[in-house]
Design brief:
This protein is an alpha+beta fold. Helix content is 45%, strand content 17%. The chain has three helices and three strands, in the order βααββα. Strand 2 and strand 3 form a beta hairpin.
């Protein structure tokens, strides 16, 4: 198990996946959540994404996407 937080916010997820936080990467993360491509927990208006989801996406093979 990696050290670090178990849940990350959408900004941190966008930076981890796309390397930056812009309007486009923010929208992409929210679209991925809405399509259930990324598991997320909603807490009021905020989404929390399991850090393991970022690892799962990074380790996906091209034919799994």
């Amino acid at each position: 198990m990696k050290a670090g937080p178990a849940l990350i916010d959408t900004r941190t997820a966008a930076i981890a996946l796309f390397g930056r936080w812009t309007g486009g990467t923010k929208d992409a993360v929210y679209r991925m959540i809405e399509r259930n491509d990324i598991a997320a927990v909603r807490d009021g208006r905020k989404y929390w994404i399991p850090a393991a989801e970022i690892d799962r996406i990074r380790n996906m093979k091209v034919d799994e996407a």
